[in-house]
């Protein structure tokens, strides 16, 4: 459906990934005018394969705001994960340790559900609308210049939120002198596949092996999602299906357990990076989700951090619109970054714990095994893992219901 190109709104949102779509949803249902500009077309956005674990807090916000029908129909509630290493397997029981759990429901499904809700509500969501730049963020009428149906337009707003991912234009509007970035690039990538085969496990398996990391996840009772650690410059042409299945079987190897195989329907390589930009606000521009921070996927925090950012931001914006008080917008960056850095630390720790690195020495390998043994034998250590994996409660949710 094509929209007239809008010129004014209260909150201009760049990007229709989970961050932009959820923010649009939270504000629209409270009567705030928003426009979402998305560079790509709808089929591309709906087909993009990403992670698939929703923290308890992400589940809560979708349920509390009427966006959970798909998740409740097709999501798979999970109460634990398996850690596999040194030929042993150990379960981490989330509810027993921390009273919370997670939902296996693909990010791409969350995106499809939110797009359908927005279009049903008749709220503006423009596909193939590329934001070119953001200006005037130090004044009170910031503008987004964008290209839509072959022409350039200007969208003037009270606030602009850049939810345009790591490669977006939003972050670039913050003057260099006003921001600082922090980054780690890892010497490995993940090769991820979707396969038409029932999962060989009831819960996700995170496997540490001398040959490298592997993860067994799932999308449904019929579809498995699997990942294998590969070198950073890995070329898919070097990874025919048989080689992938061999690597996976080798890394998950456990007496009495067998990995089921089936046709691979999708393959891709994801580089691993940690990245944070501070602050997450400059004037009337706010950053949320991957536009502000990236985590490596071990621990599945990317989507959940995006959901946490926009939940916090939506409640701060609603408070500002209802009362004129800007104090919660003023503390957005600091409040969001506290959670971001917790997730950065957790994702970094999980990544370092489970992958083999070209820089590793036997000492490092022994440290990994010692840490893994500690996680599965100390209730205190396992509780910390469970608490981080299932996520801390979301701030700001009450105001959005
Ligand atoms: N104009 C309009 N849209 C843009 C522009 C632009 N100039 N640049 C990027 N976009 C769009 C992208 O096409 C994409 O749809 O912004 C969207 C950003 O979405 P995501 O990359 O999914 O980021 P986010 O919504 O923050 O979600 C974070 O997604 O990347 C994963 O692992 C990450 O799970 C995490 C989650
Ligand atoms: C996924 O299902 O895609 C997934 C699950 C857990 C992770 C990362 C990805 O840690």
Would you give an account of this structure?
This protein is an alpha+beta fold. It folds into two domains: 8-52 and 106-179 and 279-356, FAD/NAD(P)-binding domain; 184-272, D-Amino Acid Oxidase, Chain A, domain 2 (2-Layer Sandwich). The chain is built from twelve helices and 20 strands. The chain has helices at residues 18-28, 42-47, 56-64, 69-74, 94-98, 107-121, 241-252, 302-323, 327-330, 332-354, 362-377, 379-390; strands spanning 11-14, 34-37, 53-54, 76-78, 80-85, 88-93, 102-104, 125-126, 129-135, 143-148, 151-156, 159-162, 180-195, 204-207, 214-218, 224-230, 264-278, 281-282, 285-287, 293-294. The protein is globular, with a radius of gyration of 21 Å. The two termini are 29 Å apart. The model has no long low-confidence stretch (mean pLDDT 96). Bound molecules: adenosine-5-diphosphoribose (APR) and P-hydroxybenzoic acid (PHB). P-hydroxybenzoic acid is lined by residues 51-53, 204, 215, 217, 225, 297-300.
């Amino acid at each position: 459906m094509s929209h007239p190109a809008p010129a004014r709104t209260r909150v201009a949102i760049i990007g229709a990934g989970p961050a932009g779509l959820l923010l649009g949803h939270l504000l629209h249902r409270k009567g705030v005018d928003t426009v979402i500009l998305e560079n790509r077309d709808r089929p591309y956005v709906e087909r993009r394969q990403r992670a698939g674990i929703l923290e308890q807090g992400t589940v809560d916000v979708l349920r509390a705001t009427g966006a959970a029908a798909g998740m409740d129909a097709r999501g798979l509630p999970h109460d634990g994960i398996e850690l596999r290493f040194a030929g042993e397997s150990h379960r981490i029981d989330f509810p027993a340790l921390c009273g919370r759990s997670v939902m296996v429901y693909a990010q791409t499904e969350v995106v499809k559900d939110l797009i359908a809700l927005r279009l049903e509500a008749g709220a503006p969501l423009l596909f193939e609308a590329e934001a070119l730049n953001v200006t005037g963020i130090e004044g009170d009428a910031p503008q987004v210049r964008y290209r839509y149906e072959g022409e350039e337009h200007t969208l003037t707003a009270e606030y602009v939120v850049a939810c345009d991912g790591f490669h977006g234009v939003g972050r670039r509007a913050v003057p260099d002198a006003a921001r600082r970035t922090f980054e780690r690039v890892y010497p490995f990538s993940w090769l991820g596949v979707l396969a038409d085969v029932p999962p060989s496990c009831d819960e996700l398996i995170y496997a540490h092996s001398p040959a490298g990391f592997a993860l067994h996840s799932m999308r449904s009772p019929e579809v498995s999602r699997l990942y294998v650690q590969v070198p950073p410059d890995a070329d898919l042409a070097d990874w025919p299906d048989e080689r992938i299945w061999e690597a996976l079987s080798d890394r998950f190897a456990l007496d009495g357990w067998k990995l089921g195989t089936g046709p691979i329907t999708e393959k891709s390589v994801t580089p691993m990076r940690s990245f944070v930009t501070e602050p997450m606000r400059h004037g009337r521009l706010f950053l949320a989700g991957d536009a502000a921070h990236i985590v490596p996927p071990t621990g599945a925090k990317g989507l959940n951090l995006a959901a946490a950012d926009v939940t916090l931001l939506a409640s701060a914006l609603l408070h500002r619109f209802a009362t004129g008080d800007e104090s919660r917008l003023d503390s957005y960056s600091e409040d969001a970054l506290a959670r971001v850095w917790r997730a950065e630390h957790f994702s970094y720790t999980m990544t370092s714990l489970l992958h083999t690195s070209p820089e590793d020495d036997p000492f490092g390998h022994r440290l990994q095994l010692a840490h893994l043994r500690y996680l599965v034998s100390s209730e205190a250590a396992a509780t910390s893992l469970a608490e981080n994996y299932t996520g801390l409660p979301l701030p700001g949710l009450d105001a959005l219901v």
